Amino acid sequence: xxxxxxxxxxxxxxxxxxxxxxxxxxxxxxxxxxxxxxxxxxxxxxxxxxxxxxxxxxxxxxxxxxxxxxxxxxxxxxxxxxxxxxxxxxxxxxxxxxxxxxxxxxxxxxxxxxxxxxxxxxxxxxxxxxxxxxxxxxxxxxxxxxxxxxxxxxxxxxxxxxxxxxxxxxxxxxxxxxxxxxxxxxxxxxxxxxxxxxxxxxxxxxxxxxxxxxxxxxxxxxxxxxxxxxxxxxxxxxxxx
Length: 241
Description:
The chain is α+β, with helices and mostly antiparallel strands. About 30% of the residues lie in helices and about 20% in strands.
């Protein structure tokens, strides 16, 4: 299913899709996408950051995958792979460790909404939240289906990456949307895919540890939600501009 031009939809329409997509992602991950020692929960508050989908580790790291294929890093490929080669000691001085009664948080999926980018304060809060997550050693997937604004002129990844240092990024204006998977920790790594309206959602890794990941089922769950999206709202996105 190609990515739609969500700038043509009202914010409330995307919010509905956003919420259904979160549910589809958690269902897909809990229904066999994750090893049995991991669970995915929707809208689980984990301290200051408020993620969309949280993956919780319930028992020992990795353990028996129970038939789920887990791949070692850094096998995933992406158009751009960036990694910081120096430790940010200032960030290490005051680290927040997020815990949960059933285990520690290991990964978060964030789907960017228009409200995350409609003001300087909003995008600053989102970027700081993402940086906090990575600094805590939690892995992160960010899906941004909205084009850059004056507040993130090179896309959401560059805005997040600038929190760790001034590293050049080859932004593609013809592919202005972003899907990125981060390995959290002192030396974060980003697997960045640039996409545009009409492209399928790329296959990206959802890291469970620094070395292991499962596929993040973005395209399949997007298609599932689109299939039951109200026809009246589909017309807005499928009609000629």
